[in-house]
Design goal:
Elements lengths: L1 H9 L4 H5 L13 H45 L1 H12 L5 E2 L9 H7 L7 E5 L7 H4 L5 E5 L3 E8 L8 E5 L4 E5 L11 E8 L4
Parallel strand pairs: 1-7
Antiparallel strand pairs: 2-3, 3-4, 4-7, 5-6
Helix pairs in contact: 3-4
Length: about 200
């Protein structure tokens, strides 16, 4: 009996125990290892692409909200600037005529107006924002021309797209800086803005 057991164990085919791995520890089925790695890489790439697209959408949505806040908030701080921003983002490119009730009293505009003789003009006059915050949100720079009967202030509105030009927002306790290019999160259309005021108003 002893000899029988020894002979049985000694003749047991050991090839299966050597070649067979554990019970499918990495169950790939019939897919080769290289193909499995490629599929894993593709899945990771898809996940990363989804995250990138999601981040871009969130960024675009965030920028749109900022521009809308500037329009609404600007209505109380600079109605002229708010109208210009709205017309640039949602208008059709028609000339925008502004109410000059405040602009005709702006110290910056009056200072330039009083220097002009009939038929003279100053083109693309820029100024520091703190000289007139309200005007700076609407027209900076601007062009002013004197005729026999009135002054004409105008400017072609087309915001910077390079993110190099920035506007300061005066929040009283502090200021923040926003690149003008942020408005192009919308499909914007350039246009001409104009307002006129009589000589007697100066």
């Amino acid at each position: 009996m002893k000899n029988y057991k020894e002979s049985s164990f000694s003749k047991w085919p050991v090839r299966l125990t050597v070649r067979t791995a554990g019970f499918h520890p990495e169950d790939r089925g019939s897919i080769p290892l290289r193909a499995t790695k490629l599929i894993t890489m593709i899945q990771k790439l898809k996940n990363n692409c989804c995250l990138i697209v999601l981040a871009m959408l969130l960024c675009s949505f965030y920028q749109k909200i900022i521009v809308l806040v500037l329009m609404v908030g600007g209505f109380f701080v600079s109605p002229e600037g708010s109208k210009i921003l709205y017309h640039y983002c949602f208008g059709n490119g028609d000339t925008l005529y502004l109410d000059g009730s405040y602009l005709s009293k702006s110290p910056v505009i009056l200072r330039q107006a009083k220097k002009l003789k009939v038929s003279q003009s100053v083109k693309n006059f820029g100024f520091k924002q703190h000289e007139d915050w309200r005007l700076s949100y609407a027209l900076n720079p601007f062009t002013i021309k004197r005729t026999r009967k009135e002054y004409i202030v105008s400017q072609w509105i087309e915001f910077d797209k390079t993110r190099k030009v920035k506007t300061k927002l005066n929040l009283f306790l502090f200021t923040i800086t926003i690149p003008d290019a942020i408005v192009h999160t919308y499909d914007c259309t350039p246009f001409l803005v104009v307002f006129k005021f009589k000589l007697s108003q100066t």
